[in-house]
Design a protein that fits this description.
The protein is of the alpha+beta class. It is 49% helix and 11% strand. The chain folds into three domains: 74 residues, Up-down Bundle (Taq DNA Polymerase, Chain T, domain 4); 134 residues, Alpha-Beta Plaits (2-Layer Sandwich); 143 residues, DNA polymerase, domain 1 (Orthogonal Bundle), CATH 1.10.150.20. The chain contains 15 helices and eight strands. A four-stranded antiparallel β-sheet has the order 6-7-3-8.
Length: 362
């Protein structure tokens, strides 16, 4: 970075110095955004606009990412190892997240990176107990979309899941009006973003930002989605209407999420409450289901007097420290308890992986 900048004593951690190098010395853009303190803005969102303008931009973003990994995980996690057990112990909170999801702190083991290639390497540090043990990871497959199919009763979505179709390809085929066999990777990727975005009540603007397309294209995509999955649109409208009337929405188990701002006069505040009205029953039901599965798995492991233990929950994923001779028995218990936690109109499915560390197992 210092070589590309031509400034040997550059402090890469100084936004002020970086801004001056990027926008005055290298002149990567004439339209630099200024902060309230009249400095050049060098936050991630701003720098991403110039990622193709100069090779230094990508290097700066990579430096920041690596610096965060170093301070947050690599330097910190070893200091948190318990001297007696030789392990890291987290605390799980039952009633912090408003959707009903578990949260984790001291330390937070639910935010160990997985999407970023460098960040993923952190998971290699999480290994099984010494001796004849392995890590087993079990992850619900598309549980929120399956719940959307269940609660909305949309026939197209139900049919796709009931017949084991790839929901993203099936969605792309319907939205873009092409045969399933001719769906391109790009079309599937867009359909996947739309599928998950709808659960969160994504807007045309939000979808356009995420896909890097125009707002008009994004609106056409959303219109095509709702024309395909008419039941989903009806469900979303009914969630908002129910929230306006009652002041809350419920999970499939009847757990309520109160939405104080659902009738707010402030459009932005009300819009957020409306999106929560759509998402809370889905995300909240997924949280309820995995908690049920965890209770049943814990009970089965105890009753079977196994050495294997459930060690981490990361929303839709459960991680186990498994004694190798018990592996097949544990896999059977996990599969039965997770896929059979509740009977829906579509099958619940899990994906399992085994490895000598968490990354390998995921």
């Amino acid at each position: 970075i210092k070589t590309l900048a031509g400034v040997p004593d550059l402090n890469i951690s100084s936004p002020k110095q970086l801004g001056e190098v990027l926008f005055e010395k290298l002149k990567i853009s004439p339209d630099a955004k200024l902060t309230k303190t009249k400095q050049y803005s060098t936050n991630e969102e701003e720098l991403m606009k110039y990622i193709n303008s100069h090779p230094i931009v990508g290097k700066i973003l990579e430096f920041r990412s690596l610096k965060k990994l170093l301070s947050t995980y690599i330097e910190t996690l070893p200091t948190l190892v318990n001297s007696k057990s030789g392990k890291i112990h987290t605390s799980f909170n039952q009633a912090v997240a408003s959707t009903g999801r578990l949260s984790s702190n001291n330390p937070n083991l639910q935010n160990i990176p997985i999407r970023d290639e460098n960040g993923r390497e952190i998971r290699k540090a999480f290994i099984p107990s010494p001796g004849d043990f392995v890590i087993l990871s079990a992850d619900y497959s598309q549980i929120e979309l399956r719940l959307m199919a269940h609660v909305s009763g949309d026939e197209q979505m139900l049919d796709a899941f009931q017949h084991g179709a790839d929901i993203h390809s099936a969605t792309a085929a319907k939205i873009f009006k092409v045969p399933l066999s001719e769906v391109s990777r790009e079309q599937r990727s867009r359909a996947k973003t739309a599928n998950f975005g709808m659960i969160y009540g994504i807007s045309a603007f939000g979808l356009s930002q995420r896909l890097g397309i125009s707002r008009t294209e994004a609106k056409d995509l959303i219109d095509g989605y709702f024309a395909t999955y008419t039941g989903v649109k009806k469900y979303m409208d009914s969630c908002v209407a129910e929230a306006r009337e009652k002041g809350y929405v419920s999970t499939i188990f009847g757990r309520k999420r109160y939405l104080a701002d659902i009738n707010s006069n402030n459009g932005t505040v009300r819009g957020l409450a409306e999106r929560n009205a759509i998402n809370a029953p889905i995300q909240g039901s997924a949280a309820d289901i995995i908690k049920l599965a965890m209770i049943n798995i814990h009970r089965e492991l105890e009753q079977s007097k196994l050495q294997s233990k459930m060690i981490i929950q990361v929303h839709d994923e459960l991680v186990f420290d498994v004694y190798k001779p018990e592996l097949e028995k544990v896999k059977a218990i996990v599969k039965t308890c997770m896929e059979g936690a509740i009977e829906l109109k579509v099958p619940l499915e899990i994906e399992m992986g085994i490895g000598s560390n968490w990354l390998e197992a995921h």
